[in-house]
Design goal:
By secondary structure, the chain is α+β, with helices and mostly antiparallel strands. The chain has helices at residues 12-30, 35-66, 125-132, 137-145, 150-157, 183-197, 223-233, 263-271, 278-282, 338-354; strands spanning 2-6, 74-95, 101-121, 158-161, 164-165, 201-205, 212-216, 241-245, 255-260, 311-313, 320-326, 329-334, 365-368.
Length: 370
């Protein structure tokens, strides 16, 4: 900003006052960028950016598993932003030769923000154990008690209940042979949703041993549902409280044996319902699962596949909730696919619940952004 001022050389008080007024105007114009207003302006942006990158990381790792590529997790361990405001000014004198002088006043303010983001790799023994350890049954019932749909929780997280299988071969890399015998389990999930919603199936704790117990009450209004559940599980229909364990070698009519999946197994299970480009199938980059007749299997028929689906596109999808580029194509969750978004949210909550306590091991990568 340049401004000509005609004043006697001795008018320093006048000049100082002018400087003060100009700098006051500059500072008042920047007030909205500092203090509480600065926090309001930057906090939502950083929050949104971190959530978006975490979501993209989850989708990317699921797609990696579909291609049998190694997964890797980075955690945003720290975000720091420095707000900087600098002022500079100058006063220049030139003489007109007639007893008067011209003073040239320059004033400049500069505002900048310097964010620094630190990333930490999630690895090491504790993290690996948390990814490979079966999720506790109590955690599943806690999720259901908090409002999660029982069919979604059990359909994704449970591999087997008594003699009913939920695609156990899907807990690892994509199998070449389609899972069988999953229809009874799918029927059990339909019944369990009704039973849990009507509070006729609930988790209890043994008063003495504190071990988990499953209660299936004999409600007259829902007797058909509870009776079919007990028949599917091979339980004694004359009792209402059943022990819960993970022992399958000795089935008992008073016990519900539940085998849960680990976080990694859940991610593998979800990765099978990822659409693949035909070219990648032809080149053998992905496993094509087929049934006993040689027909390509539809993973959307499984308990997890019904609630989760990653789509594929040659170009960037406009209506995507999360989209990532991978191997020359785009993979994404559709923004209007509420079932997939709900299961994706469940996965992120399970990750925080089971792996969130694991400390990152290794050096942190700190990147200053300019």
């Amino acid at each position: 900003m340049n401004r000509r001022i005609k004043a006697p050389l001795g008018s320093y008080k006048y000049i100082a006052g002018l400087f003060s007024a100009i700098f006051s105007l500059l500072i008042s114009g920047c007030n909205n960028s500092f203090g509480p207003d600065g926090l309001r302006g930057t906090h939502p942006l950083y929050n949104e950016a971190i959530v978006s990158t975490i979501n993209e990381q989850f989708v990317q790792n699921i797609v990696r598993l579909h291609y049998r590529d190694p997964t890797f997790f980075l955690d945003v361990s720290n975000v720091a932003a420095t707000l900087k405001l600098e002022f500079s000014g100058g006063l220049y004198q030139s003489s007109l030769g007639s007893g008067s002088d011209i003073l040239k006043l320059n004033a400049l303010s500069t505002y900048s923000t310097q964010p620094t983001i630190s990333y930490s790799p999630l690895q090491g023994e504790n993290f690996v154990k948390s990814m490979l350890s079966p999720i506790p049954v109590e955690a599943l019932f806690s999720l259901i008690a908090s409002g999660w749909n029982g069919g979604r929780v059990f359909g994704v997280c449970v591999e087997r209940v008594n003699g009913l299988e939920n695609a156990p071969s899907a807990s690892g890399p994509t199998p070449s042979l389609a899972p069988e015998k999953d229809q009874p389990f799918n029927r059990l999930m339909e019944l369990m949703v009704k039973a849990v919603d009507n509070k006729v199936v609930m988790l209890h704790a043994d008063p003495k041993t504190k071990e988990p117990m499953l209660g299936i009450s004999a409600s007259p209004d829902h007797s058909a549902v509870t009776s079919e559940i007990k028949q599917l599980l091979g339980l004694d229909e004359n009792i209402d409280i059943y022990r819960i364990n993970g022992e399958f070698t000795k089935p008992r009519p008073d016990t519900v044996s539940i085998r849960t999946r680990s976080l990694m197994s859940i991610m593998f299970y979800l990765s099978h319902h990822v659409d693949s480009p035909e070219l990648h199938k032809q080149e053998g980059l992905v496993t094509v699962t087929r049934d006993k007749h040689g027909t390509e299997f539809d993973w959307g028929k499984t308990a997890a596949g019904k609630s989760f689906h990653i789509l594929q596109s040659d170009t960037y999808p406009e209506k995507a909730f999360v989209a990532i580029p991978y191997r020359g194509y785009w993979f994404y969750l559709a923004d209007n696919d509420l079932e997939s978004k709900s299961t994706f949210m469940l996965l992120t909550q399970l990750f925080r619940l089971e792996a969130g306590a694991a400390k990152s091991v290794g050096p942190a990568l700190t990147i200053p952004l300019r």
